[in-house]
Amino acid sequence: MSNSLLWNLTLNIGLLVLIANLLTKNKIVRRMLLEKSGNLWSQATLAVFFGLFCILSTYTGVQLEGVIVNTRVIGALAGGILGGPVVGIGAGLIGGVHRYFYDIDRFTSVACAVSTLFAGIIGAVFYPHFQRGKWNQAGLFAITIISEVVQMAMILLLCRPFDMALSVVKTIALPMIFLNSFGMVIFMATFKNVFIEKDQESASKMSLALSIAERCLPYLRNGLSSREDLKSAVSIILSSAICSIVIITDRQQILARGQTDSNLDIDDFKELPLPAKQAMEDNQFVTLTETKNNTSLKGILRHHTIIAAPLTKMDHPVGCLMVFVKRRWLNLEADISFVKGLATLFSTQLELSDIDYQKHLRQRAEFSALQSQINPHFLYNSLNTVSCICRENPAQARELLMALATYFRQTLDSDRCMITLKEEMAHVNNYLILEKARFEEKLDVTIDVPEHLDCLVPALILQPIVENAVKYGADSYGRRRIRIVAREISDSVSIIVSDCGSGFPPDVLEDLHNGASSGNHIGLSNVQKRLKSIYGEENSLRITCIPEGSQVEFMITDAKEDTYNTDRKEPAQ
């Protein structure tokens, strides 16, 4: 009898697992199982679904000494664990009521019916634990043992005569407890695969979204202002994801579109598509599958689903990402998650592009303010130089004034923050023309800058250093020997200005290091601030004081002119 009982229980468990495996392939069942908080209809449907498992277990059970030895506890318990209180209690009621009326004359009918309900309740109690992802086989095994022990206790409490109930429990307790516990683990593994497949697909889609966003990053730096960049982003999405059409819009019009299915005609979209308008108006994701009230999309919606996600800046919709995917037998949750994730990453990048642009504008404003400090300072010193020779040599003074005018015209004609090294050296040479006229043979300047060396440097970054060397770099005889050297080192350019003066006072060095403006060294303080702003703290001025004089060095790293000198045209909002 024992071997027959074990064999029949094993067959029942195998049958339940087979049916469960087949049903979890059904789209409707999968959707209801994957819903985080399903509606009452979904929960009622799942209750019936697991209740039918209980009924099937009753029909396939083995008659033994007035009881039906079966796997009914698995259906009710699994319903509670997977679906929550409504599903667990519902399945337990269905299975319990059926068990009572199925064999109402048997002395265990009431006990088995009540224990089935308790199994559903026990599953519901542990529902939150398993919803947190704590799928533990030992836990499932232990919970099933508890449910079976409750059933044995119900038989002993409610069935009479007690001697017969005790005899039944002795016979069926161990086989049902251990076989049903093993069966529960196997049965739940079938349903666990649904969640694993869902998580794997979602993870795959999110990984794809991150990969696409990373590849699209260079094309989103200008926001929605460049149609060509947006077309490149659309091409990347189409080449990486399984979709037929991709469209990017702003609030008024389509900015970029592309397709992989030549049978579809998207050139008919002259105006903003309805899903995009709805997504931006409600600031919510829109999934469109029906053709009702969408006559312009009727042909596409016959075989596709449209997923529209708003592109936002500071939670305000500024555009829309529309993706057309082919309808599939399985649900579109993974595709929806993919589009949502991609739109969220795109929105973040659009916000970052605005932050970069505002930073760029602020930086240019700072440069203009700092340059405005230099120009009056330079003008003051230059006019002093001209005034020194005005009476002695009016013709030379006129030439110097013309040189000064040329210098300022070159400065004022350009609003670029970054210029070439050759242009900067031209500014320096114009300055030195004025200073040589003043100091004559007492000023000796050596320039060692290779012709091929023509990197980008911040405007007016070298002239203040040279000016400082001319002003304070005289030896004890009043002679000024200035040397300007530029050398290429790896991907950077080192520029050194040295003199033969007495060096920098310690308080001046401390002020420059701390970023304070020293009254007699406005130009150097200006240079220090700009170098730190552009190249970072590690590339600020390096000042060395030696017995033979002082040396000021700074490094110019690789910089692209358009990083600082171009403006961005904003799209219409």
TrEMBL record:
Q: Which UniProt keywords apply?
A: ATP-binding, Cell membrane, Kinase, Membrane, Nucleotide-binding, Transferase, Transmembrane, Transmembrane helix, Two-component regulatory system
What GO MF terms are annotated?
Answer: ATP binding; phosphorelay sensor kinase activity
Residue stretches spanning the membrane? 6-23, 44-62, 74-95, 107-127, 139-159, 171-191
Q: Where in the cell is it found?
A: Cell membrane
Q: Which GO terms describe its biological process?
A: cell wall organization
Matching Pfam families, A to Z? 5TM-5TMR_LYT (PF07694), HATPase_c (PF02518), His_kinase (PF06580)
Domain spans labelled Histidine kinase/HSP90-like ATPase: 453-560
Identify the domain of life: Bacteria
Question: Membrane topology type, per the record?
Answer: Multi-pass membrane protein
Give a yes or no for keyword Protein biosynthesis in this entry. no
The protein's predominant localisation is membrane
- One cellular component GO annotation, for this chain's record? plasma membrane
Q: Which SUPFAM superfamilies match?
A: ATPase domain of HSP90 chaperone/DNA topoisomerase II/histidine kinase
Mind telling me what this protein is named? Answer: Two-component system, LytT family, sensor histidine kinase LytS
Q: Which organism is it from?
A: Desulfosporosinus lacus DSM 15449
